[in-house]
Amino acid sequence: MANRSEAPIDELIGAIYDCALEPRAWGDFLARLSRHLGGQAASLFAQDLWSSQVGFLVQHGFDPAFEASYMQHYATTNIWQPLMASLQPGSIGTDEQVSTLAELHRTEWYADWLRPQGLAHAVGGVVLNDSRGSMQLTVLRPERHGHFHAEEQALLQRLLPHMQRAMAVHRRLATVAVTQDALLTGYEGLGLCVFVVDAEARVLHANRHAEDRLRAADALVAPHGRLAASAAPATLRLHHAVRLACGGDGPARGSFVDLPQPEAAPLGVLVHPLAPGRRPNAGQPAALVLLPARGTDAEVNQQALAHRYRLTAAETRLLVALLRGEDLAGYARQSGITPQTARTHLKRIFGKTGHGRQVDLLRTLASDPLLRFRLK
Predict the structure, then answer these.
(1) Do 279 and 170 reside in the same domain of the chain?
(2) Domain boundary among 227, 262, 292
(3) Residues 26, 171: one domain?
(4) 40 and 129, same structural domain?
(5) Does 117 lie in the same domain as 138?
């Protein structure tokens, strides 16, 4: 019989939502659910259609050797699986729906996989089944404990919608995390400082380049966590741009601000609205502040250029010189090569880049942001 006092239903539901934030907690949930239903083992079995991976997402109470043998062979002998595969998400099924005990005893599934583990009865449900994959929850127990009765089935039925919502939350969080990582990697690779700020210019997030820029305190500072320019008049312009991007004076709109730098040209800063669905601070207005990282400029990255077009070192040096505005003859003199060698390098560059005219080649390269990406 199930031990009702050990794991109250509300605690089980709470444990499910803990798993949305920390997937490793599914093992603890399965152990608690198994005890509550008088089970001996439980599993979450998943199939990811995107990666074609199939297997136990997490399990409780199974011998690891039997877990491996299931994937190697016994999955094909599981007489309960056709029933589970036919169920709609949120539905449950039991071993009684498939066979009698006498019929089960005559199967390879029981003789070689269930019985050695002391298992005979099962109740399971389909958590999800969509274009991304499927997931099934199963609880098993020994023959001496009898079939899972109606009350126990009803409990599992009650938990499935919560598991579905928890998985939906986890997928959404995982997607956001991947998207954020991809964006930050892209910004950093392009040599950009990225700040996310609220309407008062308080910093909600800063990437590595942005933190470096604040530590230098050459153009931007953040006293008490509020983004500001090193010079007071520029701070007023920056805060006004942030308010515009957060919709403080009407529809949210982006703008550029020039910030003074000591002994250097003004630093261009783009302040851009963040869409409501992308805001990190409970949906409150927020803005993206973008500016070049310290020590970077608009020059094409030689490593990226050579990698992109499979250029030799000599070809790369020539092309970078042309992008800087040097002419072919001048480059040849400074490099100690003949004009004919320089023309040969340029001809090979044309062949590798697909361009036949120097002006077209330079225009294409100068306008390609990926060629400013800093490869790791």
Answers:
(1) no
(2) 292
(3) yes
(4) yes
(5) yes
Category of 191 on φ-ψ map: left (φ > 0), alpha (ψ -120 to 50) or beta: left
Q: Which is nearest to 44 in space by CA: 59, 29, 28, 54? A: 59
Q: How far apart are CA 15 and CA 28, in angstroms?
A: 8
Closest to 3 in 3D by CA, of 42, 43, 31, 44: 31
**Could you list the residue range(s) of the whole structural domain that residue 222 is in?**
190-292
Sign of CA dihedral 157, 158, 159, 161: positive
pLDDT of the residue at 323 = 82
pLDDT tens digits along 333-369: 999 999 999 999 999 999 999 988 888 888 777 666 5
What is the value of pTM for the model shown?
0.56
Q: Are strands 41-48 and 133-141 parallel, antiparallel or unpaired?
A: antiparallel
Give the pLDDT band (50/70/90) at residue 145.
very high
Q: What is the CATH number of the domain that holds 271?
A: 3.30.450.20
First-residue to last-residue Cα distance in the chain? 58
Q: How far apart are CA 292 and CA 273, in angstroms?
A: 18
On the question of pLDDT at 370 being above 60, the answer is no
**129, part of any domain:** yes
Question: Does 153 lie in the same domain as 25?
Answer: yes
